[in-house]
Specification:
Helix 18 packs across helix 19, helix 29 runs antiparallel to helix 30 and helix 45 runs antiparallel to helix 49. This protein has 50 helices and 24 strands. The relative contact order is 0.04. It is α/β, with parallel strands linked by helices.
């Protein structure tokens, strides 16, 4: 085949050479012909445009112009010449008649257009040229003036002549061209034959080549197949090896996937439910809900995973690791929250008081150009508009409890299609909607209340930091400071493991993708085999590295765990601090502030050599540092509470305090106890408390028995009688109690001593350092601040920190640069300008009374958020003063240093402050009188202020008297002494007690009190009697030497602790004060606690406890009272009927709500807001609000209240059954004022006396209700009253001083006898008009009936001393006690 191919190839080459030569000659000839054709055409192309132009001109000739020219008998000479030339070209006679005939032709114009120039004889052309064209008048310009048509014909003649000349030259060339083309055609025909022959030879050669190539290709294919087989054999080995390394992992994954496929429906239901509903809840509650859902799914035969977690169903491990690298805390709550954020269909609204979610979203959004805005910014809608248009993400920070209405279309995703584009209407314009747009809301509010309209349009996610999450974060900070090598190693290890896992995941995804996309035989996929081979190598390397990493991680964690105790203490303290915001809205501290201070203490704390010592030092230093820094921003009443919270939370976290005992301490015992006789040394309240805690805590199970045991009686009596009960020995069975159990025991027995007991507890569990609050230190706070840190004075009534600020400015040489402005209407812009200038010049700017500029507070927040430290002078400081308000911007509070400065406590401190601030001491003309009465005024001022601490026994209403009241009285005292010859005591008493100070007094009983108080300080004896004293002890008296220094020295000698007698009160008032303080302390403590602390191993859950209490109360409710129809109209019967109706309504509400609550706990009905409040009240042993709304006023706890209710119902049952009672239990009535009116009305009808002239004469009987023998003819006997502030002596039948430690005394039966007011008490006895109140709070409001909601009436009681004594004692009668 090769030989044949060579022969044929030679033959083809020879033929090809011959044909090529002939083809070259033919081509040469063809080129000559083309050149000749091009020459002819070029010459014709020069003349043709002229001819074409002439023809166009001819076409434009108007027929009318031709006819007009034809009609001329004697045409102009030039026209005749032109027409003769035309005649010549047409071969006609050259005269005008002939021309007229030619013009008369119908086809004249067309003849001109179709004129063939080749038909014109040469002689005519010569004549045309000589006769006409050479004529100087035969031009276009000259003839144009004569005739347009003639001009056009002239142009045609000239063009025709030119074309004829060209044609004459080109004609011979065209002839030669035709001959050359004929010759070329012949040559090409011969060449075509030769080319055909050549093609036959070439086709034969090509066929031979194809056959040869086919053989070669077959050979090559066999060789390639051999190579492919060898390669595939190697690949098969790699495939088997590579898949073998993945087999185990894929086997496990396949099993998981099969299980997930089976449980797909249930898992997705749980995942969807979690995203839709669980966002606002804590992690523990989420876990409880999911556990219940899993059980429900199983009950409904819906397949679901037993170990369901959102992380496994909706997230990849690699993704979670990336989130954590961006700042997401590693605890489960935060990871679930991250899943919520990226899987919810509604825009996420994140509750983020610590700002962790905010930082995380910002870190994730760095690469996607995240837009950050706030509702307080004026251009937030523009930011949203641009982001929606271009598909950007938007973070809207610091939203409040309300969202701007303009966000409605975005929240509801009101997207519509117009044409091919999706749009969203924002404001008044339609914006193109990009599906890449995302919106995040974050709020710093710790416990916001969002209305349902917001809740259903957003996905609320609770990102509040968890104790475990914070502990892990703080551990990082501790180890980074203490063992930076460990932390760096740990971080690198985490990153390495993350990268390894990511790489393994990517390889697995790629392998599975390549396998799924493989076409045909898998061994032919080289990329797949290469990836598998690389996967095996990488997988082996990664697995080895991860195995080693686990060992290393364990070693690192063991080393790190040694420092966890520090992080745990920090976490405990932070959550105590965070709870403070529930007490007062100004107690706001950010996590950023906390971590900053935590790190600072790690840096500056002493560093002893051993690890154990270092840990002890750090725990002590961190605890003390936070106590100092937080205490300076707390009011005095909350500082001990803060210390106790730290101590108790540390003990709870360490499980030194049992959760059940903690709940008992907070809420007391729940439920009711049977009425049993109690030991004589115990009051009924303490005995009931002992009974309840004995049922709820096994530690105190033997307490009631021990209290009744005669062998232990003496020890218990001592506990109840001494001032320091904690120092007493306890019965043997209780000597092993731990510190908190002892605290609980003493609280149960002697609750008035709780504050001192708590101080002892804090001192024992921490140190005495934590019961000694730091003093006010403005300079220290200034040193801790920076130019971007505001310093906030949290005000209290009577406190003014500006003096301290002025002194500091003077010390720091900033007096001239201190700018002070009081905020109010129209001051916002001025304040803004001061801040702007201050940042530039380094001024101090003080904005006073921020609470009066609530509407400007968002602007202050915006100003602070936009501040840049680099653009602010280092000396600049912003000082703010504000009363506590929940409208103060939270970000400003959290970023600032807070300080409190309260008025001095105690009579001595009050008077010292008054005298330190005095001016014009020597300015009065009556020096001695002025100075002594001024001292009396200062003493009076201090007394009325300090009486407030005793609660209702001090003042019915705690009035906020100010220094300005004292200063006004001081000026008036000086004025009257200067202007009057004698001291006008009566005038001064009236002006001071009833106008200046009394102007703030709204309760008439308080008016009486303030008047009686002042009388003992503004009287002639103050000036005239050198032995005059202000108190029975003689410690307090007017100074005899009245120069300023001597008076201040005398004030300095006064006791620090004030005896109640100086205020006109009995010594027992101290117990009242202690009880009031304890009640406020416990109320505040309870306000910062969760609903109930859970305890492992405890049988009863909160649901079970409440269900049990509800069932117990329901079982004790008696049947509804049944009224008989009254025949006669009798006033007391009508009153009784009204009262019974009220009780029937109350019992019905109680029964219905108790039944509903039980059903709600069982899940049979929805737990409404009202039922939930009722549930919480039962846990706190309080009367529910829905009962209080239809019940009588009462301050009793739930158990006592229920017992009291049953007693009231029993009283009315007896009244209904027996008719007229020997004595009426006044306390049992809703509206005792109505009972008084009914009694008067009965007497008025009986005696025909006008009711408005009647009053009651009070006669206290020498017996109690059980000993009543007869019923008075007129009036009624009443019982059930309690006397506070003194006692009633049955023997002397008058008021006497209280017995020690006895705060209340039950009154004997009182006979209220209606008499005409003018005849009442006309004997010489002294009477004290004793007010009667329904409850111990005393204060009330004026109701629509014209009666006070608390005050009932005055009872005139016989007294052996001046009635003013009992007024100052705060003596009053109460219908009921609080226990």
């Amino acid at each position: 085949m090769m030989v044949e191919l060579e022969g044929k190839s030679k033959e083809a080459n020879v033929t090809e050479q011959i044909v090529s030569k002939e083809a070259a000659e033919a081509q040469k000839k063809k080129d000559e012909v083309n050149e000749m054709r091009d020459s002819c055409q070029a010459e014709l192309d020069q003349a043709l445009p002229i001819l074409e132009q002439a023809q166009k001109a001819v076409q434009s000739i108007d027929k009318a112009a031709i006819n007009e020219m034809k009609a001329l008998k004697t045409p102009p000479n030039l026209v005749q010449i032109v027409m003769c030339a035309v005649n010549l070209l047409f071969g006609e006679k050259e005269d005008w008649p002939t021309a007229q005939k030619l013009l008369g032709r119908m086809t004249f114009i067309q003849d001109l257009l179709d004129f063939d120039v080749t038909t014109v004889q040469e002689r005519r052309l010569q004549k045309l040229k000589q006769t006409y064209l050479s004529n100087p008048d035969f031009t276009k310009e000259k003839i144009l003036n004569v005739s347009q048509a003639a001009t056009t014909l002239l142009v045609w003649v000239v063009a025709t002549e030119k074309f004829a000349q060209v044609k004459k030259v080109v004609g011979p060339k065209e002839k030669a061209l035709k001959e050359a083309e004929a010759s070329l055609k012949k040559v090409e025909q011969e060449l075509s034959v030769k080319m055909g022959q050549l093609k036959e030879v070439q086709d034969m050669v090509n066929e031979l080549k194809r056959n040869l190539q086919t053989s070669i290709n077959k050979s090559e294919m066999l060789r390639q197949q051999q190579q492919t087989a060898e390669i595939q054999l190697v690949r098969a080995e790699k495939l088997v090896s590579g898949l073998a390394s993945e087999a185990e992992r894929w086997k496990v994954n396949a099993a998981l996937l099969e299980e997930d496929l089976r449980n797909l429906v249930g898992n997705i239901i749980l995942a969807a439910g979690s995203i839709a509903y669980l966002g606002p809840f804590t992690y523990n509650y989420r876990s409880e809900i999911i556990a219940k859902w899993i059980n429900n799914c199983k009950e409904l035969s819906i397949p679901v995973s037993d170990n369901f977690t959102l992380q496994r169903i909706l997230a990849e491990e690699v993704t979670i690791r990336e989130w954590q690298e961006a700042g997401l805390p590693a605890d489960n709550l935060s990871i679930d929250n991250g899943i919520f954020v990226f899987n919810c269909r509604r825009w996420p609204l994140i509750i983020d008081p610590q700002g962790q979610a905010n930082k995380w979203i910002k870190a994730l959004g760095k690469e996607t150009n995240l837009q950050i805005t706030k509702l307080s910014e004026s251009n937030f809608l523009k930011t949203l508009e641009n982001s929606i248009r271009f598909g950007q993400q938007v973070l809207m920070e610091n939203v409040e409890e309300e969202l701007d209405p303009s966000l409605e279309p975005i929240l509801q995703k009101q997207i519509f299609k117009k044409g091919a584009q999706y749009l969203l209407r924002l404001g008044d314009q339609d914006i193109p909607y990009n599906n890449e747009f995302k919106l995040y809301f974050t709020t710093k509010l710790p416990n916001p209340h969002y209305i349902p309209e917001i809740s259903i349009k957003t996905t609320i996610i609770n990102f509040t930091v968890t104790p475990q999450g914070l502990e892990d974060q703080l551990l990082v900070e501790v180890v980074r400071q203490e063992r930076i090598d460990l932390e760096e190693k740990r971080v690198n290890l985490i990153l390495q493991i993350s990268q390894d896992k990511r790489q393994l995941q990517e390889l697995e995804d790629k392998i599975l993708k390549l396998i799924s996309e493989a076409q045909g035989r898998i061994l032919e996929e080289e990329d797949l085999i290469t990836t598998l081979d690389a996967s095996k190598i990488t997988s082996d390397t990664v697995n080895q590295r991860m195995a080693q990493s686990k060992i290393t991680a364990e070693e690192i964690n063991q080393a790190r765990e040694q420092y966890r105790i520090i992080a745990r203490r920090g976490s405990v303290i932070y959550f105590v601090i965070a709870d403070l915001a529930l007490i007062d809205p100004m107690y706001q501290y950010s996590l950023e502030f906390f971590i900053k201070l935590f790190k600072k203490r790690l840096e500056v704390a002493p560093n002893p050599p051993s690890l154990e010592e270092r840990l002890a030092v750090l725990i002590d230093d961190i605890t003390k540092a936070f106590y100092i820094n937080i205490c300076r921003g707390l009011f005095e009443k909350d500082k001990l509470l803060f210390s106790f919270l730290i101590a108790s939370k540390i003990q709870l976290q360490a499980q030194y305090i049992h959760a059940r005992e903690w709940n008992i301490f907070l809420r007391g015992g729940t439920g009711t106890v049977p009425n049993e006789e109690h030991p004589s040394f115990l009051n009924e309240k303490s005995w009931k408390n002992c009974m309840m805690i004995s049922k709820q805590s096994h530690v105190f199970a033997q307490l009631p028995m021990s209290l009744k045991d005669s062998n232990d009686e003496q020890l218990w009596r001592e506990v109840m009688d001494v001032q320091d009960p904690w120092k007493c020995d306890l019965p043997l069975v209780f000597r092993s109690l731990d510190p908190f159990q002892k605290l609980l025991l003493f609280k149960t027995l002697r609750d008035e001593k709780l504050v001192i007991l708590i101080k002892n507890y804090v001192s024992d569990t921490l140190t005495s350092f934590f019961i000694e609050p730091p003093v006010f230190n403005l300079k220290g706070a200034f040193q801790d601040s920076s130019c971007t840190t505001p310093i906030i004075f949290v005000l209290s009534p009577g406190a003014d920190p500006i003096t301290y600020l002025l002194n500091l400015a003077k010390d720091m040489e900033m007096e001239t640069k201190l700018k002070i402005i009081s905020l109010g209407q129209g001051q916002g812009n001025i304040a803004k300008e001061l801040i702007k200038t201050g940042r530039r010049t380094g001024d101090w700017v003080c904005l006073q009374n921020c609470h009066l500029a609530i509407t400007w507070m968002p602007e202050l927040e915006r100003i602070q958020e936009l501040q840049v430290e680099a653009d602010t002078d280092a000396n600049y400081r912003l000082w703010l003063t504000s009363m506590p308000t929940d409208k103060f911007p939270v970000p400003v509070l959290q970023s600032g240093i807070k300080l409190t400065n309260e008025p001095p406590k105690g009579l001595k401190a009050n008077m010292m402050r008054t005298y330190n601030d005095l001016s014009g001491y020597d300015s009065c003309t009556k020096q001695d009188e002025y100075k002594k009465l001024l001292f009396s005024l200062a003493f009076f001022h201090a007394v009325i202020l300090e009486r407030r601490k005793f609660g209702p026994i001090g003042w019915n209403i705690p009035y906020e008297w100010m220094n300005s009241d004292f200063e006004t009285c001081q000026l008036q005292l000086k004025m009257y002494l200067d202007e009057q010859p004698e001291v006008p005591y009566q005038t001064l008493n009236y002006i001071i007690s009833e106008i200046n100070y009394g102007g703030r007094v709204t309760d008439d009983k308080d008016v009486r009190l303030i008047t009686d108080l002042l009388k003992q300080y503004f009287c002639p004896a103050v000036l005239n009697d050198s032995n005059y004293i202000f108190s029975s002890s003689g410690v307090y008296h007017p100074p005899q030497i009245v120069d300023l220094q001597s008076v201040i020295q005398y004030i300095s000698s006064l006791p620090l602790e004030d005896d109640p007698e100086v205020f006109g009160l009995h010594t027992n008032a101290n117990i009242t004060f202690q009880q009031k303080t304890v009640a406020e302390f416990m109320s505040t403590l309870l306000s910062v606690q969760p609903r109930m602390v859970a305890e492992k191993g405890v049988e009863e859950t909160p649901d079970q406890i409440v269900f049990k209490v509800a069932k117990e109360i329901l079982g004790k409710l008696p049947p509804l009272l049944v009224q008989k129809k009254e025949v006669a109209i009798e006033s007391l019967a009508i009153f009784r009927s009204q009262e019974v109706d009220r009780f029937i309504k109350l019992v019905r509400v109680m029964r219905n709500s108790l039944e509903l609550l039980q059903k709600a706990i069982q899940g049979l009905v929805v737990m409404s807001i009202e039922l939930e409040k009722m549930f919480n009240s039962f846990l706190d042993a309080k009367v529910p609000e829905n009962w209080e709304n239809v019940a009588y006023p009462s301050l009793k706890p739930l158990g006592s209240w229920v017992t009291d209710l049953n007693q009231r119902l029993d009283f009315f049952k007896q009244w209904l059954e027996n008719g007229t009672m020997k004595s009426y239990w006044l306390s049992a009535m809703f509206f005792p004022q109505g009972f008084m009116t009914a009694t008067k009305q009965t007497y008025a009808r009986k005696t025909k006396t006008p009711i408005d002239t009647l009053t009651f004469r009070t006669q206290v009987r020498p017996f109690y209700k059980d000993n009543i023998q007869d019923v008075p003819q007129d009036g009624v006997n009443i019982d059930g009253l309690y006397l506070q502030g003194c006692k009633w002596d049955v023997g002397t039948n008058q008021l006497e001083e209280s017995d020690p430690l006895v705060l209340f005394q039950e009154m004997p039966v009182v006979w209220l006898e209606p008499v005409i007011a003018s005849t009442q008490n006309q004997n010489s006895q002294k009477f004290y008009k004793c007010p009667l109140y329904k409850t111990s709070t005393r204060r009330g409001t004026l109701s629509t009936t014209g009666h006070s909601t608390n005050f009932v009436l005055y009872l005139e009681l016989i007294t052996g001393v001046e009635p003013a004594v009992w007024t100052r004692r705060g003596v009053a009668l109460l219908c009921q006690l609080d226990d």
